[in-house]
Amino acid sequence: MAISTTNSTAQSVLDKYSVNKTGTSAETTASDGKKGGKLGKDEFLKLMVAQMNNQNPLEPQGNGEFIAQLAQFSTVEGITNLNTSVGSILSGSQSSQALQASTLVGRKVIVDTDKVKVDTSADFKGALNLTASSPNVWVNVYNDAGSQVNRLNLGQQSSGLVNFTWDGTDASGKKLAAGTYRFEAQANVNDTTTAMKTSLPANVDSVTLGQNGGEMTLNLAGVGSIGISKVQAVGQ
């Protein structure tokens, strides 16, 4: 009596699945347009064993096919292990980010901005980036209403980072209330008034952790939210 048992049943099940390069299993679409199942490494191995058990003894599976399926199984297992490793790295990165965030709250950071919240009870120190040497450099100070309250004359300066200090008073020497102030740095370059960028200290009120490994965001008093990559330095 001829033996008619073949591996067609197991093979047809295997054919319902496909393994992609991005995870441990893949979703497939059958001919009727419906979503297929998910095939992990355990299911793949079971189906491969079932295929071997049900193969036709008179026409056994060739070595090449068997090796190809083993290679595919190894690929699935390798991707599984890779995803596990990447997940561990991401988890460790998020933990490190959370620890870093906790140390920043309440401290000051130096960022490129022209507007910050100032405690006028103490001297406020900032800096401007002078792009060229100038015979006359100054910083105009504006309150939150947009009115100019003082002007800091820095005189002649060489190109580079120029520091300045404001004592929190107006032009008449009167101490002003704490609040948000804007600093407008300008310089005379080649007989032309030119605006310069300012780098100012701002207090970190809170920190927002990045999602899925994204950049951490700092919420700064008087400035708003900025990415941590834009921080130039961390103060006390």
From TrEMBL:
Q: Does the keyword Transmembrane apply?
A: no
Residue ranges annotated for the FlgD Tudor-like domain, each copy included: 96-232
What Pfam families does this protein map onto?
FlgD, FlgD_ig, FLgD_tudor
Q: Which UniProt keywords apply?
A: Bacterial flagellum biogenesis, Cell projection, Cilium, Flagellum
What InterPro entries does this protein map onto? Answer: FlgD, FlgD/Vpr_Ig-like, FLgD_Tudor
Where is each FlgD/Vpr Ig-like domain found? 115-188
Annotated family: Belongs to the FlgD family.
Q: What does this protein do?
A: Required for flagellar hook formation. May act as a scaffolding protein.
Name it.
Basal-body rod modification protein FlgD
Protein's organism = Pseudomonas benzopyrenica
